[in-house]
Amino acid sequence: MILPALNFPKKPADMNRRDFLKSGGAVATLALAPGVTLMAFGGQASAAADPGKRWGLLIDVNKCPSDCSACVSACKVENGWGNDKHAADHPEAAPQWIRKVSLTDKSTGREFALPVMCQHCENPPCVDVCPTNASFKRPDGIVLVDKHRCIGCRYCMMACPYKARSFVHEDVTDQKTHAPRGKGTVESCTLCVHRVDAGGAPACVEACNTTGNAAMLFGDLNDPDSEIAQALKAYPSVAIRDDLGLNPGVRYSNL
Amino acid sequence: MERTLYREIKATRQIVQLAVLLAAFIAAAALAVLYIEHHGHIVTGMNNQIVWGMPHVFAIFLIVAASGALNVASIASVFGQVPYKPLARLSGLLALALLAGGLAVLVLDLGRPDRLIVAMTTYNFSSVFAWNILLYNGFFVIVGAYLFVQMARSMPYGVIRTAGTIAFLWRLVLTTGTGSIFGWLVARQAYDAAVMAPLFVAMSFAIGLAVFLLVLGLITWLTERPLGEKLVARMGRLLGIFAGVVLYFTAVQHLTNLYAAEHSGIEAFILWEGGLYTNLFWFGQVLIGGLIPIALVFHPTGGAKPASAFVASALVVAGGFAQLYVIIIGGQAYPLEMFPGYQVTSGFSDGVVNAYSASYLEVLLGLGGVALALAITGVGMKVLRILPTNLSDANIGQD
Lengths: 255, 399
Description:
The structure holds two protein chains of two kinds. Chain A is α+β, with helices and mostly antiparallel strands. Chain A is built from seven helices and nine strands, in the order αβαββαββαββααβαβ. Chain A has a single domain, classed as Alpha-Beta Plaits, CATH 3.30.70. Chain A has helices at 17-23, 70-79, 125-129, 155-159, 193-197, 203-211, 227-234, and strands at 55-60, 98-105, 111-117, 135-137, 143-145, 166-167, 186-187, 216-220, 250-253. In chain A, α2 (70-79) runs antiparallel to α6. Chain A starts with 16 loop residues before the first helix and ends with a strand. By secondary structure, chain B is an all-alpha fold. Chain B has one domain (6-338, 345-395): Formate dehydrogenase/DMSO reductase domain (Formate dehydrogenase/DMSO reductase fold, Up-down Bundle). Helices cover 68% and strands 2% of the residues of chain B. Chain B has 13 helices and three strands, in the order βααααααααααααβαβ. In chain B, α2 (54-69) runs antiparallel to α4 (88-108) and α10 crosses α11 (276-297). Chain B starts with 5 loop residues before the first strand and ends in an 11-residue tail after the last strand. β2 of chain A pairs antiparallel with β2 of chain B.
């Protein structure tokens, strides 16, 4: 039986569920994990999470000037945080998806700075401790919070060795459609999953390149031919709190 | 010796006044919760550095006290100590009430308490928090059944003993779970220690018995029912032993950490540099919550007086609260050690001791949980035959 209609380009209304999912269209992250839906990460994503990939970052500390915070500013703009009503007068309660940390070696006096965000661990403690499975790791290694499942218990914040997670303490406005936020839930760096799914790079990496510093390298750690994998193979790098055995997807060189 | 008679308490003027006072605290807590939920946690003292605050101190205090309050019943049913048998019903009821009060505080502090159904229907079995939810629910069922068989007519002792044994084992697992909420936090220097589980079990023994003694003393005084001095002094001595066990596990915890150079920072913070936390540790927990109550109940002459046991109970409650404050708040106040060997600064409080000052809203919420626990106990004693009419020494069986 021939169904000629199938040969015509479809309008969205004609798409069945399979087509819709295959297209990776409106809600690509529907296929993130069984039973997990994320209204958030929509947009024109080109593919769902690929279990064959492991997205990661390599940050060259030598190329990261202490006075530069382009990555932080870009993340704020991209994901719509940092302008909450009490962010200025209660900085300790304001969410912080990515921050610049300044370090001084106590024995040598060497000073430098580096950005710290969710390290997208292979064995994320936040996912282990989350009672409702709101914290989850995508097959491609990106660690996210399902804002619809998060009950706001903050146990993941207690468990995270990197202080990478924030609790939203007040009403939020002007949210981005690709990065929903909610009072009473926990949030953190998404590795700009909406960009990654569309084939792009995180906003922080893009901003770092724009400054000319190019201290951040983004890519697939599983692909031996990728630039990040080649760099990791060629030069020494470390993970923060490597002793915990979490195998973070974010690595630092010259630390 | 007459037969032990359990009778409902009467709604005397004093009891009604107390009920009104408790209702006022519960109402105030409800208003505080509504206020926090409307404005967000920005109106509390908690922030993204001190993520668990005063509500958690109250909640965990009540949850730990709940499992400990059941000890009196366990001593009677499981270990066959006759003098404790008339107290077993109150012990079970108080345990249930304290757990309800603690969980109420915990749940109402959630960012999204309206999603409690998610926590009740979705379990991540690698989360000790999820295990705790199952353990709490199981505690209600098991202790409820234990209370039922105690109060059912002509129930064979073997059934009561079996129910009591299951409840006793369950409560040990439950408090192990509560301690493991902290013990399994590998990220933080103040926690990440297996000793947290037995420490919390020991704390539950002490705090639970102390709360039980205070409630028993108050309700027998209000209802003018006799309470034997020897019975109280006996429980007071047991409390002294429990307080000693808490000190023992506390010493093990800190001595083990002191031996490891990597923990020297957090130990220095808690033991001598931490200001409020150091004072709460030495004066609150060790002195007021440990050494003084032990001295009181084991004093050669004063130890036999019921007042010693009651004062010791109040001190153990205060010391236990101080201990949980040091563990929960102090443990978070100390900065996360992410870069050993480096001095760290950032715009997100890295490398600095985090300040915390509880808002009155959080205190109201916590006190509301205490009031709820006491109110449930009171209503339970009003409608059920929980409290014996005569607990005088002459009327208490000897073992």
